[in-house]
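Q: Hi! New to this. If I give you a protein sequence and the SMILES for coenzyme A, can you show me the bound structure?
A: Yes, paste them in.
Q: Okay, here:
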Amino acid sequence: MPPTLKSVVTYSHRELPDVSQLLGLFRQAPWAKDRSLDDAKDMLQHTDLTLCAWDGDHLIGFGRVLTDFVYRATIWDVIVDRAYQGQGVGTEIVKQILNHPRLKRVELFWLCTRRPGFYEKLGFTSKEQTGMVWSRSKNSQLE
Ligand SMILES: CC(C)(COP(=O)(O)OP(=O)(O)OC[C@H]1O[C@@H](n2cnc3c(N)ncnc32)[C@H](O)[C@@H]1OP(=O)(O)O)[C@@H](O)C(=O)NCCC(=O)NCCS
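A: Thanks. Here is the predicted structure of the protein with coenzyme A bound:
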């Protein structure tokens, strides 16, 4: 790991990541560890905005957004490579999403997380609304 990480990490929302590098990050997150190459390719194609953190050409962080660009945006899959965690990369990914020029009109950003502490530091709150989740694997009786 480089000693002056902040100076070597670059952030980009224009370059889509190489899918195999992205799967390397997904393997480090419990909810994404079993994702396949083909599904991840499809997901990237249909994602409105991605934010990648790079150390040279090595993908070290990722986050993505689904949005109507006006009223609502949801943030998904914010992950930082274990070797680079705790150095501000995750914070920068979320800040760059919230300040992205194409998302300036968005009223409300939503996300689901098992790590509320990280997002509370960035101004997210769980007090205003109740999020609900419908899981296909737990609702097979409706199909
Ligand atoms: C959560 C995650 C994205 C944070 O990225 P990071 O680059 O390590 O975070 P930062 O260095 O920007 O940390 C920012 C602050 O959040 C805190 N923080 C980091 N991870 C945290 C966690 N899991 N729980 C609570 N607080 C956390 C840090 O202590 C830091 O606080 P400080 O500014 O007071 O020192 C990263 O740990 C990760 O990828 N984890 C695995 C995947 C995951 O859980 N993603 C969450 C989305 S659901």
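A: The chain has five helices and five strands. Let me know if you'd like me to explain how to read the tokens.
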